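User: Run a structure prediction on this.
Assistant: Running it now.
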Amino acid sequence: MELTVLALSFTLFLVIGVPVAFAIGLSSVATIIAAGLPIAVVFQKMVGGMQVFSFLAIPFFVFAGELMLYGGIAERIVRFANSLVGHVRGGLGMSNVIGCTLFGGVAGSPLADVSAMGSVMIPLMKKEGYDADYAVNVTTHAALVGAIMPTSHNMIIFTLATSGIASVSVLSLILAGLVPAIILTLCNLGAAYYVAVKRGYPTRGAFPGWGEVTRAFGAALPGLLVVVIILVGILSGAFTATESASIAVAWALAITVFVYRTMSWKNFMTACAKACKTTGVVLLLIGISNAFGYFMALYEVPQLTGELMKSVSSQPWVIFLMINVLLFILGTFLDMAATILICTPIFMPIAMQFGMDPIQFGIVMLINCALGLNTPPVGSVQFVGCAIGGISVGQVMRSIAPFYGALGICLLLVTYVPAFSLWLPSLVK
């Protein structure tokens, strides 16, 4: 009875348009009332869920990303990407992919990535004769790489969502995301080139020479070094994964204020305000999802889901495919943080039962959640891209198949070839 109340009330609140955080909280309260338990249980679980030292990394990583966004780093990355591949057919599209990947590495946020790179590249691509739907699809899909880069705060959220299920270190997850990020970038480049050739987009001048590439790389290098600093610092033991987030903030401030000299007081205050808003939303989701997860564990939702899946098939590859499909469907209705916090306790034990490593599952989860960011009706990355491109979501969806295909190939490779996500973490054990 209580489980039915939990599921139906949560679904009902989502259908009528209640924000996800409040839908989770209200369904938890409804379940408490149905179970006859003290309502204080919900608040105890909320507060307990937020009182974790590792959560300090989330506001710092979010703040670092906002500083990168408003500090002028995107323009330098665009120049470097254009100098590298801008001369090939559909070169602006491929430059967009590389630029978004690099900026995603320093910002760690797909939404910040599409906001920064999209505002530069989408109007430029339209001006050069590229169709708006192509420009938006290239940008929004390339921006998703930021979800599995070292500065992604969603990795921190996932490691905390695994509490009580398995021990997943932030460092292992960071390393596990590097090879899939490269694979996803290559798949995006392939999709961008394929569509550019199919539509007959022109080449854009000649190769500027390695001298220009070197100069553009030198200009972008200070901003890009944040990824190297985080990896080297954690691996060397100079600081922990949680402390690395504060190092990222200090580095972003130093670069944008003293090196690039592009950080104005107005932009700094805007970055602070947006970081506070994002952090508040994420922590609210974490606290409420902790209460929601308590009920799912109490009423054995993971076990029941696992039994249901096993009744369909006992083959691991079928189970993994079902998990991917369910995560994709749920990701179209939930924001990334909410999907991680709600679905990890359900699907991770099932995946582990059929032989998937927790670290590998983490990357599979993050890629699926990233795909949800670019899928209506709750595709925030897609909405931002469409707003910048001045085009409707319906028009973009009509030509999205090659880019979905690229992301799907990457997801299948990570799901069924464990070495892609486990090789690097195995080197530091």
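The chain has a mean pLDDT of 83.
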